[in-house]
Automatic annotation (TrEMBL):
<dbReference type="InterPro" id="IPR025166">
    <property type="entry name" value="Integrase_DNA_bind_dom"/>
</dbReference>
<keyword id="KW-0229">DNA integration</keyword>
<dbReference type="Pfam" id="PF00589">
    <property type="entry name" value="Phage_integrase"/>
</dbReference>
<dbReference type="InterPro" id="IPR013762">
    <property type="entry name" value="Integrase-like_cat_sf"/>
</dbReference>
<keyword id="KW-0233">DNA recombination</keyword>
<dbReference type="InterPro" id="IPR050808">
    <property type="entry name" value="Phage_Integrase"/>
</dbReference>
<dbReference type="InterPro" id="IPR038488">
    <property type="entry name" value="Integrase_DNA-bd_sf"/>
</dbReference>
<keyword id="KW-0238">DNA-binding</keyword>
<dbReference type="InterPro" id="IPR011010">
    <property type="entry name" value="DNA_brk_join_enz"/>
</dbReference>
<dbReference type="GO" id="GO:0015074">
    <property type="term" value="P:DNA integration"/>
</dbReference>
<dbReference type="GO" id="GO:0003677">
    <property type="term" value="F:DNA binding"/>
</dbReference>
<dbReference type="InterPro" id="IPR002104">
    <property type="entry name" value="Integrase_catalytic"/>
</dbReference>
<dbReference type="InterPro" id="IPR044068">
    <property type="entry name" value="CB"/>
</dbReference>
<dbReference type="InterPro" id="IPR053876">
    <property type="entry name" value="Phage_int_M"/>
</dbReference>
<dbReference type="Pfam" id="PF22022">
    <property type="entry name" value="Phage_int_M"/>
</dbReference>
<comment type="similarity">
    <text>Belongs to the 'phage' integrase family.</text>
</comment>
<dbReference type="Pfam" id="PF13356">
    <property type="entry name" value="Arm-DNA-bind_3"/>
</dbReference>
């Protein structure tokens, strides 16, 4: 066991033995040294007492060159002092190292992707509607979070989240950035509840974009314009967009309408029953159908064997709304320009639902709890009292009268001469 003053140069110049290994002890730091194998591997170590017995603790491989991995001599001496100190106060550095390794392995196993896949299996897939599942997949596995896939989930920082939001905004989707933040917040909060991380990195991050578009409600003139544009569009999307405004149901729920979900179509109380696996809140929802809605449904051809009413393939509900929406917008813009009117402000298909709710409350005179029941909301007044036991049949007669009154009121907007026939309801 030769002794020598270890320096970076002397460690590098040591000649490997023909066989076995040789330990060189440092004269500067007692009990510290470097082990040299016949293969030329250099590893730092320190001798100390652990539990009353002398133990040799490996510190790590020595750095052979400036650009190679390993520990410098200074780093190894510092680590030797730390290990000796741990042993001196009764701790076993080997057990500490083992525990740290286990923690690191657990962190490596709990990567962002692994945690996200578990979140999807346990929280999203069993509970949420198909459209919401797609939104979560976009948020957790899309391009803005792709760089996080193999990182430990607890290593994602607020700066990482902000960069992802900024990337979404730079692609021209400020509303998408708000949406991304909302879904990431749900995910990281779920992780914190399961001790996968201590503090969600989304805490105290404000939505990056104002929600101005989300509060849009069309006025009477705009409703008349969009309806006329629907008529000009014709075909499948004309019927789909009209149903959105007449029923107030969500876009994907309406697009997936099947004949098997509709009962008593030729009777006095036709109903569209949306199963829970197709609604946003996973609750079955019954929609009483007004005569105007019945007329649209009866006019729809059945394509394929699955009974979809709004489809081009026969195997799924329709999609491709954006192109049809652009044609509707173009028609409205042209009509207003030719009439010398102001352009119509930006609006979304979801605004049709909000418009129906607002007008039913403010103009048709429907009680708020009935309006909420019509659109499958379980919030506000509907969460308290009797609506706490909400089910798909709640207020069914009131809802039928309300939706029929709304359809009649809408007829009055489309054809003003008929507005005198509209009876205002108060539930």
């Amino acid at each position: 066991m030769p002794k020598m003053k270890l320096t970076a140069l002397s460690v590098a110049r040591l000649t490997p033995p023909e066989s076995g290994q040789v330990d060189y002890f440092d004269t500067v730091l007692p009990a510290f040294g470097v082990r040299l194998s016949h293969a030329g591997t250099r590893s730092y170590f320190v001798m100390t007492r652990v539990g009353g017995k002398v133990a040799r603790l490996t510190i790590g491989k020595a750095k052979a060159r400036d650009d190679s991995p390993g520990l410098t001599l200074a780093e190894a001496r510092k680590r030797a002092g730390e290990l000796t100190e741990q042993a001196g106060i009764g701790h076993d550095p080997r057990q500490i190292k083992k525990a740290e390794k286990q923690v690191n392995e657990e962190k490596a196993a709990n990567t962002f992707r692994v945690a996200a896949e578990r979140f999807m299996r346990q929280h999203v897939e069993p509970r949420l509607a198909a459209s919401t599942k797609m939104d979560y997949k976009w948020a957790l596995f899309g391009q803005d979070t792709a760089a996080w896939a193999n990182k430990p989930v607890d290593s994602i920082t607020r700066a990482d989240v902000r960069r992802a939001l900024d990337a979404t905004i730079e692609r021209g989707s400020p509303a998408g950035a708000n949406k991304l933040l909302a879904y990431l917040s749900k995910f990281f909060n779920w992780c914190a509840e399961r001790d996968l991380l201590e503090v969600p990195p989304t805490i105290r991050i404000k939505p990056p974009s104002p929600k101005s578009v989300g509060e849009r409600t069309l006025n009477h003139a705009e409703v008349a314009d969009v309806w006329a544009a629907f008529e000009a569009e014709g075909g499948l999307f004309c019927d789909l967009f009209k149903l959105l405004l007449l029923t107030g149901q969500r876009r994907t729920e309406t697009a997936g309408m099947r004949l098997s979900e509709i009962s008593d179509l030729d009777g006095e109380k036709p109903v569209w029953e949306i199963p829970g696996n197709r609604t946003k809140n996973s609750r079955p929802h019954a929609v009483p159908l007004s005569p105007q809605v019945v007329a649209i449904i009866k006019g729809r051809p059945i394509v394929g064997d699955l009974g979809f009413l709004l489809t081009t393939t026969g195997t799924t509900g329709t999609s491709g709304y954006s192109n049809a929406k652009e044609r509707v917008d173009a028609w409205i813009a042209k009509r207003r320009e030719e009439a010398g009117e102001q352009p119509m402000p930006r609006w979304t298909l979801h605004d049709l639902r909000r418009t129906m709710v607002t007008m039913m409350n403010e103009h048709v005179g429907i009680a708020p709890h009935v309006v909420e029941a019509c659109v499958n909301h379980v919030s506000g007044m509907a969460k308290a009292g009797v609506a706490g036991v909400y089910n798909k049949a709640l207020y069914m007669d009131d809802r039928r009268r309300a939706l029929e009154a709304w359809a009649a009121y809408l007829d009055g907007i489309i054809s003003p001469k008929d507005t005198t026939n509209v009876v205002k309801l108060r539930q």
